[in-house]
Amino acid sequence: MSRKHAFQFLELPRQMPQRIPVELRTSGDWGELYGKFDKADAQYQAGRCLDCGNPYCSWKCPVHNAIPQWLQLVQENRIEEAAALCHTTNPLPEVCGRVCPQDRLCEGSCTLEEFGAVTIGAVEKYIVDTALAKGWRPDLSSVQPTGKRVAVIGAGPAGLSCADVLARSGIQAVVFDRYEQIGGLLQFGIPSFKLDKSVIATRRQVLEGMGVEFRLGVEVGRDVTLQALLEEFDAVFVGTGAYRYTDGGLPGQDLDNVLPALPFLVQNARIVTGGDGWGRPIAGWEDKITLPDLGGKRVVVLGGGDTGMDCVRSAIRLGAAKVTCAYRRDEANMPGSAREVANAREEGVRFLFNRQPLSIEADAEGKLVGVRVAETRLGEPDARGRRNAEIIQGSESLLEADVVIIAFGFSPTLPEWLSAVGVEGQSNGRIVAGGGDRLPYQTTHPKLFAGGDAVRGADLVVTAVAEGRDAAASIAELLHVQAPARAA
Ligand code: FAD
Ligand code: SF4
């Protein structure tokens, strides 16, 4: 029964689910930081929604979730209906509820912000986890098979979301990934303290139950040709992500114990989830790195984005004695989520803002000693409106370190197997999709569609979800198939 009355938000403060105590986190607990709401907590928190009539939260959410409507269903304990409604806009709601930077998206535009925004992400996670645990599954009983078949390259959020909507449209989706498990960066990039890997295993069961087929450990362009896929399938979706490391060109970056962020996180994820750390190497990183023992070490992470935050917090869990994040702008201009920065601080990470790395230094024996940095001040905005970090002359110092992790970001590369069939890319490696008289997300090859980081550049899970979902609708249009209607 609903407990709602108009001013519930004044009586009940915003509350997130309980977190793992900091002592456990700093002594190597890799469990998901945030626990789960129980029914009463979820109903209370959902009941804080004002139903303001102008749901900025939905507009700011990149998939335009029907948030006030599913908050109402939670209050009425109609969890399966809430889960079904969540899935009409978002094929991976339990993932987004966990990893979206809600402070910048839905919750950041909640009308109640001044009183503490509704905990939208945590309720989204509660709805879908609860429904799936009760055995609820998407109902495809009214979907008519069309006989059409589409290949999806990449089992990251873009590819999985595309496959979900194709299945709901009666189109057989066959998903190829070079990795042995689905999820892309959900599995091999985002650490398990943000996203437990059992969530992805459950989602795989859901998708397989919907008729999606996975062909894993298959790299397109190596194990199977794109030409073969174009001949076998009615269309192809490309969601291959962004894996080209932004090379800062720092002198000394090739020294031992200087690690690129993604291979560090990927190998660590493989170890944490029970593997030996060795799997298929990441494209562009054909040489496997050796993960040094961080126990008792001083670790410096360069970069202030989500990847940097995952590196500092992983280093803490790996037993580093001192972990420092050096970022060239100030805190207000950090690209990472404010919530992640707060969690990192709580775990003991030290932040040094306005520090520009100049070089990585070694002693006479070639052993890493630290990072030479200069202090910066913010100058004029660049082309994207972000203020440039200008070096303050004479402010150089050495930041001592035993291990340095470089997290400067990623961009896509247009693979040769795509350009060979006429798919155009931009100079920054992004696939050209949509625009002109093409369907949304259609590339310059009529049977090929693309979305996610491969098209946008490195971004967010939820934007990859939105693009994979919408690309599937375009594919359905090309194949003259009716795609499912979305929630209003
Ligand atoms: P990916 O997730 O990269 O998936 C691409 C898939 O394509 C991979 O599985 C890859 O193996 C496969 N593939 C590539 N080439 C081939 C080929 N030739 N043949 C077969 N398969 C191929 N976003 C958030 O919203 N919140 C976060 O907290 C967050 N944290 C992040 C932390 C890290 C360390 C990183 C790197 C990113 C993070 N992101 C986060 C960003 C988010 O993970 C990505 O934006 C998102 O995963 C992009 O989805 P995608 O499907 O486009 O690509
Ligand atoms: Fe918020 Fe992300 Fe869920 Fe949208 S998908 S409601 S932005 S947590």
From TrEMBL:
Domain of life of the native organism: Bacteria
Domain Dihydroprymidine dehydrogenase: 29-135
Database matches in Pfam families: Fer4_20, Pyr_redox_2
Required cofactor names: [4Fe-4S] cluster
Residues annotated as domain FAD/NAD(P)-binding: 149-468
UniProt keyword 4Fe-4S present: yes
Protein's UniProt keywords contain Membrane: no
Keywords associated with the record: 4Fe-4S, Iron, Iron-sulfur, Metal-binding, Oxidoreductase
Gene Ontology molecular functions: 4 iron, 4 sulfur cluster binding; metal ion binding; oxidoreductase activity
InterPro entries: DPD_II (IPR028261), FAD/NAD-bd_sf (IPR036188), FAD/NAD-binding_dom (IPR023753), GltD-like (IPR006006), Helical_ferredxn (IPR009051)
Protein name: Glutamate synthase small subunit
